[in-house]
Amino acid sequence: MKNIVVLVSGGGTNLQALIDAEKSGIIKNGKITCVISSNPNAYALQRASDNNIDTQVIRRKDYDEFVAYDKALTELLKSKKADLVVLAGFMTILGHEVISAFENKIINIHPALIPSFCGEGFYGLHVHEAALKKGVKLSGATAHFVNEVCDGGPIIIQKAVEVKTDDTPETLQKRIMEQAEWKILPEAVSLFCQDKINVINNIAVISD
Ligand code: GRF
Hints:
With 208 residues, the protein is of the alpha/beta class. The protein is built from six helices and nine strands; from the N terminus they run E-H-E-H-E-H-E-H-E-H-E-E-H-E-E. Strand 1 (2-8), helix 1 (13-24) and strand 2 (30-37) form a beta-alpha-beta unit. Helix 1 (13-24) packs across helix 6 and helix 5 crosses helix 6 (169-193).
């Protein structure tokens, strides 16, 4: 059974999808053992404690230097014996130490079809504003491993979602969460926990 540690900063609907998926057996061979928030007021922390999951808070602003923060987060994850780290709306940039300590063991969910609408500055509603501005007819979500390139790690699962003519960034965000993010993030986590993802030359290869 793999230990899953989830990093959050906000509402935690993706965390909730993971908790529900663990309960219903969609996540095989994995257990969420800790939720770490960058924000002490995140509602995601409440969702974790409602489900008897250990919670921790680590704030970037409590460290003068980024390297000290990076080291502290790495140590915290190691102390929690994380086999898999999931970024579920975590708003703080990860550093070299944590990324190299957990190579191909950190999964992020991005609310667009990478390589569209991703990279620096593409977070939250900005992603959906850009998709609507471009007039794409499909957007969606991507579950991917995290490497040192922002939104550039190996792609695990993608799911397309229709864009409607009367969409606002908010309505598109909601449809992408409901139809894509909350489904593919637990699926990607389950594949990882069953050792079904192999990364070869920066490509994630999924086995049955
Ligand atoms: C989601 O849109 C996710 O794609 C992005 O951050 C948002 C988190 O929302 N990375 P929530 O906290 O899971 O509700």
